Amino acid sequence: MSEDKKTFSVADYIVFIATLAISAVIGIFYAIKDRRQQSTKQFLMADNSMRFLPISLSVLASFFSASTLLGTPAEIYQFGTMYWISAFGAVFAPLAGALLFGPMFFRIKVVSVFEYLELRFHSKLVRLFGAFIFLLRATIGMGIVLYGPSTALSAVTEFPTWAVIVIVGVLCTFYTSIGGLKAVIWTDVFQTLVMLAGMMAVLIKGFMVSGGGESVWNINYQGMRIEFFNFDFDPRVRHTFWALLIGIFFIWLPPYTVDQQMVQRFSSARSLRDAKIALLLNVPGMFIMISLCSLTGLVLFAHFANCDPLKQKKIGNPNQLLPYYVMEILGNAPGIPGLFVSSLFSGALSSVSSMLNSLSAVTWEDFMKPHMKSTTDARATLITKCLAVVYGAIGIGVAFLVKELGGTVLQASYYFENVFTRISLTLNGAAGAPLVGLFILGSCFSSTNSIGALVGGALGLTFSLWLSVGAYLSKPVTNRLPVTMAGCNISTNETFYFYHTEDYLNYTRTSVDTLEGIDNFYGLSYLWFSALGIVSCVIVGLIVSWITGTTKDVDPSLQLEIFRKVRSLCSQSKGSMTLTHKEESSTLNGNTIKDIKESFQVKGSTKL
């Protein structure tokens, strides 16, 4: 970092501290307001009283963390605008959640989404397997999300990284543990507005400084950043139209369909209609957020086209590009840098608070509650609050671990991608894919059994991890676009054509055909990892179920409605008797979903 770097002013600190304080006050408010109604239903499900707008903003804030706000502009800066196409593929994920998986979970009224696995496969082991994958994924993800904005703040202030991690982690744990899901959702609403305000302030000022939209576009075009129509069918090419339309859909599928955070919010709605509208509103919400971040990346390059701060070693990694830029163009505007950093921390706070609440729910419902049946609801609520505190401490510890590992990786090689984005997407692909596979096996196929689900899930997880680790340790063909620092000493009044420098004239793309042997497999675009994990889980699960004996009777309420209707039509075409509406909603040998849950509680355990 340069010695003359700009830092926070008093006004910036006031805006930043006020943002954190308001988040804490919201938690305190709901802790006091609902102090006489504290129950696990209140703490974990917001008493099923939420309307669609706060739920929608909460889901959006939870899945668009600081890693996205920092990583997407850095991605556009380094690799061009192809990633922007992902906005069109990603929006199909909330559609799948709103119209397919969400209504099924809402009907059966589960607190932990993994309770579905036990109801469907009659196996506690399948339920615990899925819950364990979620706990592992969410705990690691929490550390990554906590660490991301800490590097941003340390880049523009004198705050040490460790202090930022601790302060944010403790604050988030505080308001989550005392206020429950309702406090988390309403805090997310506030934090979403802060995120949008911060990004819009930077974007508008950026366009003004760079001479307007036409100037920004022309500079990026000359700098080889504008590319939208790469229709290459080679799956080894990092970003193609097909990977960003299809592959990115499978990456976003886990969080928007079977993730505990989404299901808790969906089920906290006062009605199914509110729940559906909440996720449907995420379609334009996702498109807007990805587009804002992509436009910010264009503005970044327009500003640094003549003089790349990474090559100059003014900053240590791509995640600091945006904070460094903000301090350069807005450093003299009191309060605006504080608003921007607040937007980053709002993204982190919303994601971490959601994870804490969901981790508490899964740990209590899936691992502790079955062995503590005589526990009163008041005591259970206290336990879930304590679990939130414990997971907050674990998340802070993981963030410090990520700090050490992240620093080592970044210092080892200058030839890097955006590390936070890559790790986050790899984690979603490796851990999220087999979870989606398990739920597809249960909700889309009536013939699958618990053995098929376990084997398919285990092999899907192993395959995804093997592919992800192999790709991370190998050197994939990424083709980072050229940058220059030849114009760093050129005055603003002097004409300089950065695209005539040797950095651009000598630039050549590396072909994926240079990959050899197993590197051809590891060299697959990371965007396909999640899809491969889901498909492998489903195929293996179906084969093993066929070999070991298929399930005959499955409660229709545990199946996606569209597949129930398809099977009903098929039965009609064969002259078979179709299920009545009453049977569709409640029958499995005369038992309702409620009856099945009660039978599990009486038995205490179920077979494999």
TrEMBL record:
GO BP: any one term: sodium ion transport
One cellular-component annotation, GO: plasma membrane
Annotated InterPro entries: Na/Glc_symporter_sf (IPR038377), Na/solute_symporter (IPR001734), Sodium:Solute_Symporter_SSF (IPR051163)
Membrane topology of this protein: Multi-pass membrane protein
GO MF annotation list: symporter activity
PANTHER family: LD47995P-RELATED (PTHR42985:SF40), SODIUM-COUPLED MONOCARBOXYLATE TRANSPORTER (PTHR42985)
NCBIfam families named in the record: sss
Protein's UniProt name: Sodium-coupled monocarboxylate transporter 1
